[in-house]
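Holo prediction. Input below; ligand is adenosine monophosphate.
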Amino acid sequence: MSFTLQTGVREECGVFGIYNCEKENVARDICYGLTALQHRGQEACGIAVVDTDGPLGQAGCRKGLGLVNEVFHEENTDQLQGNLGIGHVRYSTTGSPTAENIQPLVLKYHKGVLCLAHNGNLINTQSLRRKLQETGAVFQTTMDSEVISLLIARERLQTSSVEEAIRRTAAQIRGAYALVILSPRKLIGVRDPLGLRPLCLGKKGKSWILASESCAINAVGGEFIRDIEPGEIITITGSDMHSRNIFQKKTQDGTAVKPPACAHCIFEYIYFARLDSYIDGISVYEARLKGGAALARTFPVPADVVTGVPDSGLVAAMGYAREAGIPFSLLFHKNSYVGRTFIKPTQKERENSVRMKLSVIEPAVKGKRIILVDDSIVRGTTIRNLIGMLKKAGAREVHVRISSPPFLYPCYFGTDVPSNRQLIASSRSSAEIQQEIGADSLAYMPVFALSEMVGRLSICTACFTGSYPMDISSEITQDR
Ligand code: AMP
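Structure of the complex:
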């Protein structure tokens, strides 16, 4: 991923869970899994573990602000003893970046300990929180994940299993969620009914694994088994695994409740997910190659070389180059040692950070007509700076191709796109943006071409089209 913290759009979170049936400690594997998911959030991370033979109300937990390798080292990881555990990497989308807002959430309720890690964003948190508060609930964080935990704990008073409590909770919450829950003898994974956020299942020897992306299963030496279905609640109890669906419930006349159509987040494929992951049966790498090829077919232009913005635009650029029959060339060197702390979210610092992170390889640029591919334009800072650098190094022409449509609408499901005011595309035409960034031509992926990336997968494109996969109007006016 090229620029994460400094760009203003904030990405989501990553979740990981593991149950070792041979009673071996799992904290190290969680660390490795979270490290593989680090691209999904760099602000904070945490791990919670239990011993499935130990006391029901006891969990070991460690959390902190920073990267996984800053918060966890050998010694403090090995202190977390337990064969069942979950972990989380966070970039806040709701709730402020304070210590109490770091996940997993660990709650003690009448059945013992309940730990929860959440990726996604609910749209009806405020009204649910209000209702819970009116009946005496006390909240310690500002996260919507705490609302989910409290609802599960409450419903559990009336239900015979935690899964049924989760199902009843799912009927009340609206929005995007991929959850891993530890309760205290079970590992449970839940995916929202639209499948907005990813979650998959893997196995490593005698361990079951749940993870946001398959790259995390590979990182611990495990084997990918399958994606969790939209609306699925999967329970792992030792060597047993059970699956049920939020929609297994029947209506009063006995017919099954029809699940809504899926709406997988297309931005996972465009930007968020790691290149080596598969999500809902589709390789992220191949989706990006196909996106680049679709751009080349739709918006060809004569040029000498095609290049991508490292790292997020590279694969789409390769796809473009291959389709157009124009050589792909690396024109930027990326300095991988620019620390996160170096980067501050003011506009001036954003500009500096582009130059600190990327420099032009001058001999490859001089006199060339260049096609420059990136996955998205948010404020335009990155692309404007890079075009300036290419032109200064002697580029004859720079044609920009973006492998997503213009960002125009807010995402309520976990992709924290900045307010419309900051989105360059919300107030300017393509021609105006082209002029502002200094490009010789500019073209964005058309919305209709997104399906070329993912075939027949049913996707959410709301941030580009404003067409939301669920009714948000009542919630947003009530909640925000
Ligand atoms: P900007 O410089 O504000 O136009 O931001 C564009 C850059 O931000 C591109 O290089 C993208 O790869 C990157 N980007 C896009 N979406 C996100 C996101 N959600 N979080 C962090 N970076 C992003």
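Residues 2-4, 7-11, 271, 309, 312, 374-382, 415 surround adenosine monophosphate (CB under 6 Å). That is the main takeaway for now.
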